[in-house]
Design goal:
14 helices, Rossmann fold, alpha/beta, 20 strands
Length: 532
């Protein structure tokens, strides 16, 4: 009799589990606030396929009986989903053996819901929430970018239409640091642009139109970028610009681009000012610092378990901006900010490290780029400072590993770009880059490839619309009217301001070996709609 009862109970539990997995949503105990969005946190690597999403009416899970799977929202599963005994990754505590999912979980294939390894005691999928004013992009309805057409396929629909228009040579400019200590990334952006142009020219052979690269060296200096911009707009054959690496340089050049109604598509600029200053010709394929900074703060609190932080920045639009966004979110999360200081020092950081050593923070956050971050971190470790180290995407270069060496161990950084190995559709690009330039494609170079491809698509579409060589203003209009297009790094659809919707953000562990930088371990991948 006892055995029969056990079998009946087991059957009931199995029916409950099957019912939950079929998409029946359990009612939440409390109604959530509809105005608070939740970020889409995608687990790292290919093991992790469950995606958290925001749901306006149901975001809280109720506890089910032991052994049942409780799903709040809509669950869509293809293939075999392994959930039994899997712990929730949203921060909601589940009963033993219970899988809890918040929002819309989409799972494909057979996989567990664990991501890559995170620091001890933390989940790899950190459940990072969206900063205030942003929205998650994975819900019951797919975002427009998810329905994207691959850029080569879109270009193929235009090649026969431009044939006979006698467009001749059309230039696409790039403007990045090709000299100086930031040239590693700047040259990568130029090279990515060059590869995209070469690929488009192969597709356009015999159509009477050829794209040509016009590279400019802005030296990572605003005044040089501004002077170059004047030369760029004076060349009537230049119909699009790929650039810049540095937000401050882009902001110095944008007035000239804007006056000439010349499109700028940035593969790297993250300052909110790029798309918040009223420039109708400014676009980017990367996220923004008012999201990147808060994501870093949440990672510091939830994963690194930091309770205190000393914040440094490089006094640039980019570095100071992202540091301020980090500080604001850190304070909201209860992290004590022990110092907030800007410096342009590049060699001797002793005067800065002395107060940091006395303050003894859990974490040092540096808003800036790798040429400063490397020596800063090495000198900190030489002085016996053991605080964890975190920074934004300005740290994303193998040059950081060359400068910091073993001192880089345990360092994390957020990024809007990530190593090329993180993009499955960029495998051919990575191979082509290595063959042509004898090196690994650096961060932001694949984004430059996509930016240049968007330039080409907009120019050709504008030419078709104009039935001849388009004006710069017509290229701006065409770019805004393009459908969602899939590049090698992501599928993109620009919002009215010129931001990609959604934006993608990464948190990675830095490798101490420069040769292995492309294999930096992914801690989290997050998609968030841009702030409104």
């Amino acid at each position: 009799m006892k055995r029969a009862s056990s079998l009946i109970i087991l059957a009931a539990l199995l029916l409950s589990l099957l019912s939950a997995c079929g998409g029946t949503a359990a009612k939440p105990t409390d109604s959530p606030k509809p105005t608070v969005p939740v970020a889409t946190a995608k687990p790292a690597a290919t093991e992790a396929v469950a995606t958290e999403a925001a749901e306006v009416t149901q975001t809280g899970a109720t506890e089910g009986p032991e052994g049942t799977a409780v799903i709040t929202g809509t669950a869509v599963m293809t293939g075999t989903a392994v959930m039994t005994g899997t712990a929730a990754t949203t921060g909601t505590e589940a009963p033993e053996g219970t899988a809890v999912m918040t929002g819309t979980a989409v799972m494909t294939g057979t996989a567990a819901t664990t991501g890559t390894e995170a620091p001890e005691g933390t989940a790899a999928t950190t459940g990072t929430e969206a900063p205030e004013g942003t929205a998650a992009t994975t819900g019951t309805e797919a975002p427009e970018a998810a329905k994207a057409v691959k850029i080569p396929a879109f270009l193929a629909t235009l090649t026969s239409k431009v044939s006979g228009l006698k467009l001749g040579t059309i230039k696409i400019a790039s403007q990045t640091p090709l000299s100086g200590d930031q040239s590693a990334l700047g040259i990568g952006i130029r090279n990515g642009t060059e590869l995209a142009i070469a690929q488009m020219n192969i597709a356009l052979k015999g159509t009477g139109v050829t794209f040509e690269l016009a590279p400019f060296d802005d030296q990572a200096k605003p005044e040089v970028g501004s002077a170059n911009a004047k030369n760029i707009v004076s060349d009537a054959d230049i119909l699009c610009v790929v650039g810049h690496l540095n937000s401050g340089v882009a902001l110095a050049a944008l007035p000239d681009y804007s006056n000439a109604k010349l499109v700028m598509i940035s593969p790297a600029n993250t300052s909110p000012k790029i798309t918040e200053s009223g420039y109708t010709n400014a676009f980017r394929v990367v996220g923004r610092d008012d999201v990147q900074g808060p994501i870093g703060a949440r990672f510091a609190s939830e994963t690194l378990k930091a309770t205190s932080v000393y914040i440094l920045h490089d006094k640039t639009d980019y570095g100071q901006g992202v540091a301020e966004f980090f500080r604001k979110e850190a304070e909201k999360l209860g992290i004590k900010v022990l110092g907030f200081e800007g410096t342009q020092e590049k060699s001797d950081f002793s005067s800065i490290l002395t107060p940091i050593q006395a303050a003894n923070p859990d974490l040092i956050y540096f808003g800036g780029l790798y040429p400063q971050a490397g020596p800063l971190l090495r000198q900190a470790r030489d002085r016996g400072i053991t605080a964890k180290f975190l920074g934004p995407d300005g740290l994303d270069s193998p040059e950081l590993a060359k400068l910091a060496g073993d001192a880089l161990a345990g360092t994390y950084y957020t990024s809007v770009a990530a190593p090329v190995s993180q993009f499955p559709d960029a495998a051919q690009y990575a191979s082509d880059y290595k063959a042509k330039y004898n090196g690994t494609a650096p961060p932001f170079s694949p984004q430059a490839f996509d930016s240049a491809s968007f330039c080409g698509a907009a120019i050709l579409q504008a030419a078709v619309n104009a039935k001849g060589k388009p004006t710069r203003e017509q290229v701006v209009t065409a770019l805004k009217g393009l459908p969602a297009l899939a590049g090698i790094t992501a599928s993109y659809k620009f919002n009215a301001k010129g931001d990609p919707d959604p934006g993608t953000y990464y948190i990675l562990a830095a490798n101490t070996d420069p040769a292995q930088w492309d294999n930096n371990k992914l801690a989290s991948r997050i998609e968030i709609a841009p702030p409104k």
